[in-house]
Amino acid sequence: MYGILRNLVVQILTWEAQLALKRYQPKIIAVTGSAGKTTTKDAIFCVLSDGRFVRKSEKSYNSELGVPLTILGLESGWGSPWRWFINILKGAYVVGSGEKYPDWLVLEVGADRPGDIRKIARWLRPDIAVITSIPDVPVHVEFFQSPNALAREKKRLAEHLKHDGILVINGDDVYTKEIMKEHASQAVSFGFEGQNAFVATDAGIQYEDKKPVGMHFYSHHSGSETEVTLLGALGRPRVYAAIAALAVAEAAGVSQESAADALRTWAPPPGRMRIIPGIKGSLIIDDTYNSSPAAAASALETLKEIKGYKKKIAALGDMLELGRFSKEAHIEIGRHVAKSANMLVTVGLRARAIAETALDNGIAETNVRQYEQGESQRAGKELEPDLDAQTLVLVKGSQSMRMEKVVEEIMADPTHAPELLVRQDADWKVR
Hints:
Blueprint: H1 2-24, E1 27-32, H2 37-48, E2 54-56, H3 66-72, H4 81-97, E3 104-108, H5 116-124, E4 128-131, H6 147-159, E5 166-170, H7 174-182, E6 187-191, E7 198-208, E8 211-221, E9 224-231, H8 236-251, H9 256-264, E10 274-277, E11 283-287, H10 293-305, E12 311-317, H11 326-340, E13 343-347, H12 352-360, E14 368-371, H13 376-383, E15 391-396, H14 404-410, H15 417-420, H16 426-429
Parallel strand pairs: 1-3, 1-4, 2-3, 4-5, 5-6, 6-7, 11-15, 12-13, 12-15, 13-14
Antiparallel strand pairs: 7-8, 8-9, 10-11
Helix pairs in contact: 1-3, 1-4, 2-8, 2-9, 5-6, 8-9, 10-11, 11-12, 13-14
């Protein structure tokens, strides 16, 4: 019965969303990929918002239900049939009222299973499609035969571009390069490699008073150079998101200088390599939104690069939805840990492979702690005595591991958790 009702709600809201698009004719930017979708979406929203009426997908509303909700400006009804009924009435009002509607929509489009993107893309028909990256072992690969199969699903967004649409695509990624070849006439590439239309160079960590505060790089396009500073979060993925946003800005008629100025004010989304003060003067890198092998490896590389800390702790939860790739992926992350941290905390059954491999690669047994799923809060509490002003802590794990509870236990001011951390609304708090 639940499945029937859900499908009915999806059908009605999708129909209302299609009517809204037909009536208001907004420009549509659709973002997909297996890593960096939400961060890229937020960066694009930032560079377009000055002087424009822009709406973006909230949180990760990127499904066949989430996309229509964003188009209609509605919130999830969660498990309440009454709230979904109200949403349907509100959707009808949006379509019929003629109210002021956004000029631009920045929509995140995800794929958990084959066919997910095709269902959305065939009626969405974006003006600009953005494809971020597809790592060798991407998140959500569990229901696909291979990363290539997942890449083919992501490609559906490019296939359903409007005839004069623009494809903004990561030119460094092996899978997205293949997509770019098939859509060369519409493609604008971004990345670190020199052949891209938008190239990021000299990317590095920005420091103030010997503490990391963000990232810095130079963007090169058509012979011009633009300096970009990103505050509040760390890591190479944040630079990728910013350079993608600069490419979209060019396509949307926003100057590179204005886009760079906007990116300096871009607040990092919760749980994505966000810099948070910890207790006893420690510093936390909060990357607890989700996890995948590529993202975890990148976060650990950033942990390794940061200067000025004697103790570096990696607190890592299970990486989920990896299917047959799971065991080897966790083993590989264990190898990265041994090169990046001198203390390890794991949460979950799968993460035991991280601990075992880190031990095999040189981390001292006394510096490794392991917890079961559901013990993330305990892990954070028991970490407190190990923290001081010379300690840097990276916290990361898949959503279900609830690693944000580790951050909440060790952050300097937990009263700021509602605005700084992921999964702080009432529905998540009771899970």
